[in-house]
Amino acid sequence: MFDEIMQKFEGSPSQQAVIRLLLERGFSVNDDGRVVSGGIEIPNTGIAREIDVDRRVVDSTTTAILEDEELRRIFQNISSFPSLMDLAPVLDLSVLTIEPNDAEQPGIVAEVTSRLAERGISIRQTISEDPEFTDEPKLYVVTDDPLPGDLLNELSALEFVRRVSIA
Questions:
Q1: What's the pLDDT band for 107 if we cut at 50, 70, 90?
Q2: pTM here?
Q3: ∠ CA(121), CA(123), CA(124), 5° rounding?
Q4: Which helix or strand (DSSP H or E) is residue 141 part of?
Q5: What is the pLDDT of residues 114-142, one digit of tens each?
């Protein structure tokens, strides 16, 4: 799906940058063509500044979104949710990142979370990036407890795992 959305803007790398930002941040586009997070409007100038494009590029991108029924359905229903990942260091939490070889393979989340549960490690949050919307999707698992090295080695040895990291 991500590739299909990006193809609709293939002639404009600047508009693709706007689309990428909207998807990454979970920003919606309301009926007036304004970028919003919930009911809070985000100024187009702020979005433009963040990705180093002209404000008019944001305007033209939101107009194109509203004119395309498929894009309209996606961008009027997307939402963000609070993530503990950035707060982890402040709250003394650990963040396990799994980079899979093939994120569309079934059972990745189940296998990783089962291995943590077997060790009695409490999971506070799990975030799985969608392979349809992200070029290199990852699985993030936020835990209360630090993860032992042998568990990291065990997870690294799983056939679907390309890389494991901890923060």
A1: very high
A2: 0.76
A3: 140
A4: strand 139-143
A5: 999 999 999 999 999 888 777 789 999 99
- pLDDT at position 148 over 90: yes
| Lateral strand order in the sheet of 94-100 | 123-128, 139-143, 94-100, 161-166
Question: Can you tell me the distance from the alpha carbon of 125 to that of 122, in angstroms, rounded to the nearest whole number?
Answer: 9
Residues in the chain: 167
- Average pLDDT (7-30) is 94
- DSSP helix/strand/coil, 36: strand
CA–CA dist 104, 125 (Å, integer): 20
Residue type at 35 in one-letter notation: V
> How would you class 5 by CB atoms within 10 Å of its CB: exposed for 0-12, middle for 13-18, buried for 19 or more?
buried
Report the chain's terminal Cα–Cα distance, integer Å. Answer: 30
Q: What is the DSSP string of 69-138?
A: HHHHHHHTT------STTTHHHHT-EEEEEEES-TTSTTHHHHHHHHHHHTTPPEEEEEE--TTT-SS--
